[in-house]
Amino acid sequence: MPSIRFFALAALLSLGACAPADDKDSLDTAADTAAGDDTGFSGEVYDAGDLLWSENYANLPIPADIGLQVIGVCPAGSTGDFTTVWGTDTYTDDSSLCTAAVHAGVITLDGGSIHVEAVAGLDAYEGSLRNGVESLDYGSWGRSFVFVGGKV
After folding, report:
1. What angle do CA 62, 67, 73 make, to 5 degrees?
2. Using CA of residue 39, residue 44, residue 49, residue 53, what is the dihedral sign?
C-alpha cells in the first residue's frame, strides 16, 4: 500500500512546488567530471524556486535519493541572523541551504542562485568560520549535500 508520504509528494509535484528543471541535461557535477560520470547521478535536477534562509535540504518536498540535485534562489537581505549549518564543504542535509551557500562562498548576503547535490552522510563533520558564517562540528549523519559549480 502506498504511503501517505508518497501521496503528499505526488501532490506537491503536481502543483509544481518542486518540479524538475528544464535544463537538467546541461548541468554537470564536479563529482561526475572527476569520476567519469560513474557516480550514480540520477540525472534529475529539481527547481526549488525561491528559498527561505531557514530552509534546509531535508525539508524540501523531493525524494531522498543520493545524487539528486536541486537548484534554487536565496533572497537578498539576510540580516546575518544565520540558521545553523553543520560541516565544511559537505554539510548535513538539515543545514540551512542559503546559510551554507554563504559559508561555502557560493553566494553573498545579496543572495543568488544555488545548485546542490545530495551525497552520502559522513561519519563526522568539521565546522569552520568562513565568510562571516560559523558552521559547527557534528558526528555521524545519514545524508549530506554539497554545492555544484563555482563560487562568487
Report:
1. 55
2. negative
Sign of the C-alpha dihedral, residues 54, 64, 105, 73? Answer: negative
* Cα gap 21→31, rounded to integer Å: 20
Distance between CA atoms of residues 92 and 145, nearest Å:
6
The total number of residues shown for the chain amounts to 152
| Residue of higher predicted confidence among 19 and 133 | 133
CA distances from 54 to 15, 33, 86, 120 (A): 22, 31, 14, 22
20-147: CATH topology is Ferric Hydroxamate Uptake Protein; Chain A, domain 1 (2.170.130)
Q: Where are the domains of the chain?
A: 20-147
Angle at 67 between CA 65 and CA 72, to 5 degrees: 90
Give me the amino acid identity at 42.
S
pLDDT digits (tens, 9 = 90+) for 5-50: 222 333 333 334 444 344 333 333 333 333 333 334 457 899 999 9
Q: What is the pTM for the complete model shown? A: 0.72
